[in-house]
Write a structure and sequence with these properties.
Oligomer: single chain
Shape: globular
GO molecular function: 2,3-dihydroxybenzoate-serine ligase activity; phosphopantetheine binding
Protein name: Condensation domain-containing protein
Order of helices and strands: EEHEHEHEEEHEEHHHHHEEHHEE
Structural class: alpha+beta
Pfam family, one: Condensation
Distance between the termini: 27 Å
Largest sheet: 8 strands, mixed
Organism: Saccharobesus litoralis
CATH topology of the largest domain: Chloramphenicol Acetyltransferase
Strand order of the largest sheet: 2-1-7-8-9-4-13-12
Radius of gyration: 23 Å
Helix content: 25-40%
CATH architecture of the largest domain: 2-Layer Sandwich
Number of strands: 13
Strand content: 15-25%
């Protein structure tokens, strides 16, 4: 049974609506959204959003920019309070009220015409945990359209037992990055706890707040304004000079195309193959200690390992990969929901006599120098170097993302567990 939470009531859907009724609902939603659009001021996309927009335009039907995550709450939960929680978070964070339009701009929605929370009850299933896994595997892969009508994100609450719930988020990457996934998950715990304590009139000291959560003080519109102003700034000119000095020409492709992609003509991509490899705790601690002795991090260590691998496989002494940068200006935007991440090119020289230690030193030094110029979009660098004219649709073939995010939180007294971040398909 599917239960969808509406702003003022809970609508229980016991069977799939007819195609006629579904079309009617879509027409009404389109009309309501169009009326809201006419009253709203158009905003440009931020630079970070523009990179995602361009990527999606190259592959309009592809779900590779769908991202999200899920986690579990181990304790009782009140559905009506959780519905209020989501509504409050959306109201207080403008990043969740931005609607991308088909012309590459966006508007700020005052109130969504769609449901903010989708609720599923699998507690009557023989194996509710497996039912949740199957539901997510079926729900997550579908693309989120940037049609200027539907909100580009979904929040789900799934009941496994009266003492265990799953929270899941699915969104288009143009709206939210990986760091914001953790912010949103933790923010919901803060709001829910506040609402529950007020309702139950609890006066004793609450449990500690999560390490990160969105406080609503700095809104995403401020970042949009700043990123647009950056394009006309001296800093942008200096950054462009830095990257053009580092890349005199487009890097050679790292991967070789062995098969013809039939999906490309339809504006799509082949499905991703997701492989999960779990590193033993003792091995990870060894990596941490090794990196620490080199005055580096495990992230640097993994980058070096990947560069060594592809250098040997393809017999290349120059490896160029993409590395994500949080791009949140120190503490200023660390509590703001939205899309900030930019992908920065990293060039690593793997000489025949290079050692792991020397490569770590090189990566650390190069990243330290490049981070100062990370705001400059790789797509703009590609344009300067004639990427489109050369028939390429990307600056680098591989992106290495390493995230260690704190999802530890409590919904009143119920702790969260088993966070899982998913990206693309």
């Amino acid at each position: 049974m599917l239960v969808i939470n509406m702003p003022n009531n809970i609508l229980q859907i016991l069977k799939t609506p007819s195609l006629k009724n579904r079309k009617k609902d879509i027409d009404l939603l389109t009309l309501a959204t169009s009326q809201a659009n006419r009253k709203s001021k158009k905003l440009p996309l931020s630079l970070a959003q523009q990179q995602i927009w361009l990527d999606q335009q190259l592959h309009p039907q592809s779900p590779h920019l769908t991202t999200g995550g899920l986690g579990f709450i181990n304790g009782p939960l009140e559905l009506s309070l959780f519905e209020q929680t989501v509504a409050k978070m959306v109201n207080e964070n403008d990043g969740l009220r931005l609607l991308p339009l088909t012309d590459g701009t966006q508007i700020l929605i005052e109130h969504w015409q769609e449901d903010l929370l989708e609720y599923h009850d699998f507690s009557q299933q023989e194996d509710s945990e497996q039912a949740i896994v199957q539901w997510w595997d079926n729900t997550y892969p579908s693309a989120i359209p940037l049609d200027g009508i539907h909100k580009p994100w979904h929040i789900y609450l799934i009941k496994s037992t009266p003492e265990r719930y799953c929270i899941a988020m699915k969104y288009h990457h143009i709206m939210i990055d990986g760091f914001s996934t953790a912010l949103a998950m933790n923010t919901m715990s803060v709001i829910y706890t506040e609402l529950a304590r007020a309702k139950l009139k609890i006066t004793e000291e609450p449990l500690p707040l999560p390490a990160i959560y969105a406080n609503g003080q700095t809104q995403y519109q401020q970042y949009i304004t700043e990123s647009q102003a950056y394009l006309q700034s001296k800093a942008c000119a200096a950054d462009e000079k830095y990257w053009l000095n580092l890349f005199k020409q487009l890097p050679e492709p790292l991967l070789e195309a062995k098969y013809q992609c039939n999906n490309k003509a339809q504006g799509s991509l082949p499905n991703a193959f997701n492989h999960y490899h779990h590193i033993a705790v003792q091995d990870y601690h060894f990596f941490q200690e090794t990196a620490k002795n080199q005055k580096a991090t495990t992230y640097h260590l993994f980058i070096v390992a990947i560069c060594i691998y592809f250098s040997r496989i393809y017999n290349k002494q120059e490896v160029v990969i993409g590395v994500p940068v949080l791009n949140r200006s120190g503490k200023k935007y660390k509590s703001t929901l939205g899309m900030f991440v930019v992908i920065m090119p990293l060039k690593v020289y793997v000489e025949p006599d290079a050692t792991t230690e020397s490569l770590i030193e090189q990566v650390v030094a190069t990243l330290r120098a490049s981070y100062r110029h990370a705001r400059y979009p790789a797509s703009m660098l590609g344009q300067k170097l004639g990427m489109v004219a050369s028939g390429k649709d990307r600056f680098f073939d591989i992106t290495v993302s390493f995230e260690a995010t704190n999802y530890s939180a409590h919904y009143l007294n119920a702790p969260t567990s088993e966070p899982r971040h998913t990206f693309g398909d």
